[in-house]
Amino acid sequence: MSARKIVLTFPKNKIDKPIVHKLIKDFGLVFNIMKASITPDQEGHMVIELSGENADIEKGIKYLKDEGIKVEPLSKDIRVNWDKCVQCGACVSICPTGALYIKDRKTMEVAFDTEKCIACELCIRPCPPRAIEVHF
Hints:
- This protein is of the alpha+beta class and 136 residues long.
- It folds into 2 domains: 2-75, ACT domain (Alpha-Beta Plaits, 2-Layer Sandwich); 78-134, Alpha-Beta Plaits, CATH 3.30.70.20.
- It is 17% helix and 33% strand.
- A 4-stranded antiparallel sheet has the order 2-3-1-4, with helices on one face. Strands 5-8 form a two-stranded antiparallel ribbon.
């Protein structure tokens, strides 16, 4: 069993359809909604973690794309601008999953593990130079 975090973008004509439900019903996948913003008559966004067999995850993603849903890996939407980052570590103390962490205690270098990130956005506010951005 494996897991994959993805960002779904729903066109406004699809937001009232039970598209995500079919991931369970037809593909045997488990999903965890980590963030969602869906408003009638507007584009919708959802961050989910899909769990299941790799082949089933691939089939589920193909189904979503065939339905007109834009599917992207979560890592494309979480960005750390390392040129702006001053390595202060303010983001590290607030990150609930340890996705942002001190890589080397001697240099206090901050690192980012996209696999652990759940896009909670808690790291954005404490970042003095605004080096962390979340785009959905």
